[in-house]
Amino acid sequence: MTAQSISAQEASSSLPVTLADIEAAAMAIAGQIEDTPLRYSRTLSEITGAKVWIKFENLQFTASFKERGALYKLLSLSNSEKAAGVIAMSAGNHAQGVAYHANRLGIPSTIVMPKGTPFVKIEHTRNFGAKVIIHGETLADADAHARLLEKEQGLTFVHPFDDKHVIAGQGTIGLEIMDALPDFDVMVIPVGGGGLSSGIATAIKARRPATQIIGVEPALYPSLSAELRGEEAKVGGATIAEGIAVKKVGKLTAQILRQLMERVILVSEDELERAVTLFATVEKTVAEGAGAAGLAALLAEPETFRGRKVVLVLCGGNIDTRLLASVLTRSLVREKRITSVRIIGNDQPGLLAKVSTVIGDNGGNIIEVFHNRLALDVPAKGAEFDITIETRDARHTQEIIDALTEAGFPPRTN
Predict the structure, then answer these.
(1) Which of 312, 6, 1, 25 has its CA nearest to residue 167?
(2) CB-based contacts of 408: which residues, under 8 Å, 6+ apart?
(3) CA 131 to CA 112: how far, in whole Å?
(4) Under 8 Å CB-to-CB from 398, ≥6 apart: which residues?
(5) pLDDT at site 5
(6) Which range is least confidently modeled, 2-11, 178-187, 389-398, 403-412?
(7) If you classify domain 3-64+166-330 with CATH, what class do you get?
(8) Alpha-carbon distances of 201 from 28, 135, 139, 254, rounded to whole Å
(9) pLDDT band at 380 (very low <50, low <70, confident <90, very high)
(10) What is the pLDDT of residue 4?
């Protein structure tokens, strides 16, 4: 059964989380989380051809939407459960949300994180007051260890997505969007375990059933796509969207999304990198890979969204600074604003100076030079230079290459 084949009322009555649940969550967490801004992006609209609004959940205190669901779950606990403490497994954002609000509410918290978790997320989780345990290579390994500790120590497990209170808490984003924007055509939501997407979809479909709900997954982790086809997901590989890189979506979330989500778009690592870069350069805001997935979907399938009113959830901004630097630098290479050229010539005094002069006179900036006299494919009396240059754009790069060729130093580009 799909979202198109059932009415909003029928869907709502058969779902494990309802609009009333989400409205209750909104009342409970009001004043304890940020009502984040929803803004229209003129530039991203021009780039993608859609009319793009962005919900900036990276402006939460922990820089992620995850604290909504974590907070509502913590508030639902009994006094004895709060006193005993909670445990969670997470690659970062859920961990920070649980740690921050547990500490604020006086609830002891333990977080199990897999070994590949970005250091910035581990550090922030510890700084928020949680006991952090690094265990296992994957989220599944961390989950198994957390479940063991839950039983051994009498803790309450706070699931990152497959929990009614967590789903309802994430769904409050949908209420805020509808309060801020009278109408829109499409809601594009990153999908990992499905907590965010199922919560928002429940809220929006209950009030505005004609709105299309589209999920986004990394191509390397098509967990929901496989689930909706009734297949076992083939997942794995290094993705910059580690926040939504899960092997399997939740049971509750799959039940909701099977009814309310029209389709799922898979995005490549290149599209995720471009989206992170656009958020940094156009919106002047930081998005982690998962947070940029919605924009990546617009880059992947512009024809799907052209001319339509689209809302994106920038769901998190906790990206490792080294990774962000790498992504931004790679974007310069992709746009040919940083290019490496190889020049082979006679090993004589002044050769490098002449080449540098040509590059400088044409407005290029030399970033790095590697001088190689020992390579066997270079003549014994020759010299090879690998020169990395920075330019304004691809056209400017070509102008410098043409100038070098005209001056008698025809380069090879890498």
Answers:
(1) 25
(2) none
(3) 9
(4) none
(5) 41
(6) 2-11
(7) alpha beta
(8) 20, 33, 25, 12
(9) low
(10) 44
What's the CA gap between 337 and 339, in Å, rounded? 6
Residue with the bigger pLDDT between 355 and 140: it is 355
**CATH of region 67-157, choose from 3.30.420.10, 3.40.50.1100, 3.40.50.970, 3.40.50.10800:** 3.40.50.1100
Amino acid at 126: R
- The model's pTM is 0.87
> Considering the domain 336-413 in this protein, what is its CATH number?
3.30.70.260
Residue 273 · residue 330 · CB < 8 Å: yes
